[in-house]
Every structure is written in structure tokens, then in C-alpha cells.
Design goal:
11-stranded mixed beta sheet, globular, two-stranded antiparallel ribbon, 13 strands, single chain, about 575 residues, alpha/beta
């Protein structure tokens, strides 16, 4: 996660060089109006940490398991909001590109109504210094006269207008995390110098958050997948697991309807080009974290001549194959668990003892025991949890070293047969309350429709299965954390994206790709591949642990990124900080 803050459920004795973030942003007072692009607090009434939705952002890609893929929330989608174009409101500040501006060119005539709409900005309900608005995009770009998504935007204006360079559009990943929330905390995510020079603009992608949300699964569906056995030991158990997963996928498609079929990152990239023009920018300046790097790469490939200064933090490549993804996942997990074990065994209270070689096996043995007996908890409705919740929670604790103390204490408790600490961690990540409901705001609602549109369908043949078996045998802890490898989109009614397999964004200006050496979610192998796959990609590596690189405790990285965003200075390709 970008600048991963200590969570309320994380214990305070964590060693970290990561930048601290503020306490939870207070929700608007009871009864206060919710401004355009703003979202109410979670259903249980608790406030959230600023980037809470980002934490598990890439877990689905990093660990393709029944456990991590568990996560979407029910609700019939609300009727489509469809104000006229252009939409304006009396008494508010409006901004739009002039008809002859260079920003307002090179779009199909059929989309003219969208590219020429006016953005109506007004003070955000929770922070009058920020501005909020909405914009319209077609649900189906091949049918621009049809249904529309209403996208929510939030802008943190440049703090020094005299130094303003333009807009910096941002996306925190997910897929399904809120860019509106991300921009809410712009002053804690970007350096003062970047904040002075750019309007930081976050948006909720189509079907997500406050942007005509698509909610396709219920609480029971999510709990079903978390409670499923991710490591089946017999054909019957495997058949049950796959039937459960297929059922979830089919229910999501049925409830999500047509809109769920149009939540691809390729379509979000087209939305961003409309946004670029409406913001008045000739080129798109963009900062994408985690799955947001996939969005940046897709935009750059579709609109290479419209790429401005683009930073892709903790990356993955649209060209990744299944085997490459598995290789990167193993590398990311192994380096992250080794870093945790190294920290733990140096402590007198380490739950794994003082022997590094034996520590990994103790976690393997724990997960094997949990598969057979489970762990008891005091959580209503979850009196006993299995490998699903336990493995997911362990993996989430590896996202940042601020969570290592939680993992240590959670493992210590788990060795006694209890799972309250680990369960608390897992529930906080997926926004599950103690009454068994998942917050409507959770990014997990969008995970399945987006992933099933974004990635080519898995080709599972004998050679692939043999490679998977070999990898599992060589990495037994990773195998238990990953669980059964399968295509959770096989029952989705539309095909996935066609494979690219080519150089991306030919002709684009330099694109800066950055990542941590030890990232469990978007491993450094995937970051390196994206830098290679982009025609103008430049790689910058941080010798750091965790998920999220910029403004996370490495001044060398921060200086390089700021130099690029502010002055266009590109660091040497392959630089390590």
C-alpha cells in the first residue's frame, strides 16, 4: 500500500522507516450533506484510515487464491444518474477547456458531447479547500448515446498557483480503490513541492465507490469464499471449491448486469482521456500506485502522444503471462516473509523462536494444523476460522513492516489455538464489521468485474499444471498461502482482454516505473518487466520492504520522483536507491 499507515488493529511497537500518516479522517457530521464525489462513512459508523482501500489492492493478482479473491458486496445498483451535457449549476465555480484549445482535440466526433462537457466544481463537504465535481462517460464507448456512468472527482488545488504545472491525476489501485479518498489525503501522499505545483485530482473509476457503483455480491458470498478450503486435498474437495467460486462469479455477473460488463481498465483509460481534456491539460500527468500502474500502462498504450509526466509505483505489466506472474509472486512472497522472519527471530518475544531455518516450517505446520482443526475466535458468527482467513491475514501483514508486530502476536496467539488477532487484521482489510456485513465502500466490490475484463483467460494445460506442481513443491509455505491455482473468471460471461505481447506505449514521453525490492503484492519482477515493456520506461528501485515506494521513507526515491514530476529530470534507468 502506498505510504501504508499503522492500522487501528496494528500494535504500536513496529519498526519502520515509513512515513507516518494522519489519524483517520473524520467523517462529515451526522446529517451533513454528502458533496459530489464524497462517500458516507462505512456502515458500522467507524472512520477509515486515509488509504485503507489500497492495502489489499493487488492481492488478487499477487496471490491468485480462493482466499484473496473473496470480496465483493451485494446491492442492486442504483438507477443511472444522467444529467444533461453540459451540466452546470448556478453559484458554483466552473472550468472547462476552451473549444479551440490543444487539450480539446483528437477525439472521435461521436464522443464530442463528453469531451466538451463542463466540470462544475464546488467545495467538498468535508474540506472546503478541496473541490468536488462529477463528469459523464458512456457505459459502452461503442454506443455513446446510451447509458452513462457518473464519475466522482476530487481536486486538491495546487498550493502555489504561481508554480502550477497542471493537473496530476492519481489512482491508488485495487482494482476498486477510491481515487476520491486518495486525493482527500494528498498532503500526506505527495511532497510539499509536488503539492505546490499540481492540482492533485483523484476519481473513483466507473462502477466503483461514488461513481455509479456496481455491487454484485452479498455478505454470504464473501464469507463463503473466506471459509472455503483453499488447499483441497482430494478431487471432491477441489470440486467443491471450484463450484463455490463459479457460483460467486455467476451471481456477480447476474446481479451486476450490463454495467458490470463495462468496468475494464481499458475503458477507465478512455475515461481518463475525457478527464484530461476537461481538466484543460494537453497531456496527462499521472501517478498510479499498485493496480493503478496497470491503468497508467493501458492509458499510455492507447494514447501514447498524450502522456505527460507519468509515475507508476509498485507495478505490473499487462504483458505478464501466468507463469511470469507465478514466478514474480513467489519471489515477492519469499523475500517479504524472509524479511519478516529476520526481524522476528532477532526479538526475544518472536513467536517463531530464534532459528531462521526453523521459523518458516513452523508457519507451514501451523497452516496444516489450521486446515484440520481451525482456530477459535470470540467474533460473533465466526467462532472458528480456517486456512482462508488465516492465510489471508498473514499475507496482509506482510504489506508493510508496520504490521509485523501484529503478525508476530497473531502467530503467537494462533499457536495456542486462537485466531482473534489475525481475524481482526483480515476483517479490517476487507471492511467486514463484527455483525458480518461488508462495508459498501470496500474496494472489493469491483474486484471480480474488473479482473475478469482485464486479463486474458488462463490457459491451463498439462505443462502449466506441471509447472505449478513443481513450484508448489519447491515453495511449500507459498503453496499454502496461495492455495489452489485456478481461473476464477472461467464462468464470467464475457471474454477477457486479448493478450498484447508487444512493446507498450510506443512514442510516449519517458515514463518512470518504481518499486520496492521486497514487495509481497506487486513483486519487483513485475515492476522490472513493466519498465522493459514500456517503450520509454525508466526503472527506479528502492531497497525497501513493503508495498508502495514513493513518500514511504526513502529520501533518494522521493528526490528522484520529485525531480521528474517538477522538472522532467529522468533518473538513470535501473538506478537503485
Amino acid at each position: 500500500m502506498l505510504n501504508d499507515p499503522p492500522r487501528p488493529d496494528d500494535l504500536p511497537d513496529g519498526p519502520t522507516g515509513y512515513a507516518a500518516l494522519p489519524p483517520d479522517y473524520p467523517p462529515p457530521p451526522p446529517g451533513a450533506a454528502t458533496g459530489a464525489g464524497q462517500r458516507p462513512p462505512p456502515g458500522d459508523g467507524t472512520a477509515r484510515s486515509p488509504l485503507r482501500l489500497v492495502l489489499a489492492a493487488v492481492a488478487v493478482l499477487a496471490v491468485v487464491t480462493a482466499v484473496v479473491l473473496t470480496a465483493w458486496r451485494v446491492g442492486n445498483p442504483p438507477p443511472a444518474a444522467r444529467p444533461s451535457l453540459p451540466a452546470t449549476s448556478p453559484g458554483t465555480t466552473t472550468a472547462a477547456p476552451s473549444p479551440g484549445s490543444t487539450a480539446n482535440q483528437d477525439h472521435p466526433a461521436a464522443l464530442n458531447a463528453f469531451y466538451t462537457q463542463r466540470l462544475t466544481w464546488s467545495p467538498c463537504a468535508d474540506n472546503p479547500q478541496h473541490r468536488c465535481t462529477t463528469m459523464q462517460v458512456p457505459v459502452d464507448y461503442s454506443k455513446p448515446g446510451g447509458d452513462r456512468f457518473t464519475l466522482a472527482l476530487r481536486k486538491a488545488p495546487a498550493t502555489d498557483p504561481a508554480k502550477r504545472l497542471g493537473s496530476l491525476v492519481i489512482n491508488p489501485g485495487g482494482p476498486g480503490a477510491s481515487g476520491v479518498e486518495y486525493a482527500q489525503y494528498a498532503s500526506f501522499v505527495f511532497s510539499p513541492a509536488v503539492r505546490a505545483a499540481y492540482d492533485i485530482v483523484g476519481f473513483d473509476p466507473r462502477g466503483i465507490g461514488a461513481s455509479s457503483p456496481v455491487r454484485c455480491l452479498g455478505n454470504s458470498d464473501m464469507d463463503l469464499l473466506f471459509s472455503a478450503d483453499p488447499t483441497p486435498d482430494s478431487p471432491a474437495e477441489r470440486s467443491t471449491l471450484l463450484a463455490d467460486v463459479d457460483g460467486v462469479t455467476k451471481r456477480c455477473a447476474a446481479r451486476g448486469g450490463v454495467r458490470a460488463m463495462h468496468m475494464s481498465t481499458a475503458e477507465v483509460a478512455r475515461d481518463m482521456d475525457v478527464m484530461r481534456v476537461l481538466l484543460g491539460d494537453e497531456k496527462l500527468n499521472f501517478f498510479g500506485g499498485s493496480y493503478g500502474t496497470f491503468l497508467g500502462a493501458m492509458y499510455a498504450d492507447a494514447f501514447p502522444k498524450k502522456v505527460g509526466r507519468m509515475v507508476l509505483d509498485s507495478a505490473m505489466s499487462p504483458n505478464q503471462t501466468d507463469n511470469q506472474e507465478m514466478t514474480y509472486d513467489i519471489q515477492g512472497f519469499e523475500s517479504s516473509i524472509d524479511a519478516f522472519i529476520g526481524w522476528c527471530v532477532a526479538r526475544p518475544d518472536c513467536a517463531l523462536g530464534r532459528d531462521r531455518a526453523a521459523a518458516r516450517q513452523k508457519i507451514v505446520d501451523l497452516l496444516d494444523a489450521v486446515e484440520k482443526k481451525g482456530l477459535t475466535t470470540s467474533q460473533p458468527g465466526l467462532a472458528r476460522i480456517g486456512e482462508g482467513w488465516v492465510g489471508f491475514s498473514i499475507f496482509m501483514c506482510l504489506y508493510s513492516d508496520t504490521s509485523w508486530p501484529t503478525l508476530n502476536k497473531g502467530l503467537a496467539q494462533a499457536f495456542t489455538g486462537k485466531g482473534d488477532i489475525l481475524l481482526s487484521k483480515g476483517m479490517s482489510v476487507v471492511a467486514r464489521s463484527s455483525n458480518g456485513t461488508y462495508a459498501p465502500s470496500t474496494y472489493l466490490q469491483a474486484m471480480l468485474p474488473v479482473r475478469c475484463a482485464d486479463w486474458p483467460r488462463s490457459k491451463v494445460d498439462a505443462s502449466v499444471l506441471a509447472e505449478q506442481r513443481k513450484a508448489k513443491a519447491a515453495h511449500p509455505l507459498w503453496a499454502r498461502m496461495t492455495g489452489e491455482l485456478y481461473d476464477n473468471c472461467r464462468s464470467w460471461p464475457t471474454p477477457g482482454r486479448a493478450e498484447k505481447g508487444t512493446t507498450l506505449a510506443v512514442g510516449a514521453d519517458p515514463i518512470l516505473v518504481i518499486g520496492n525490492e521486497r514487495d509481497p503484492a506487486t513483486p519487483i519482477g513485475g515492476t522490472k518487466q513493466l519498465a522493459r515493456d514500456l517503450d520509454s520506461g525508466t526503472l527506479l528501485i528502492s531497497d525497501h520492504d513493503g508495498h508502495g515506494t514513493y513518500y514511504a521513507g526513502n529520501p533518494c526515491v522521493d528526490s528522484a520522483v520529485d525531480g521528474y514530476l517538477l522538472r522532467g529530470k529522468v533518473p538513470g534507468n535501473g538506478t537503485t536507491c
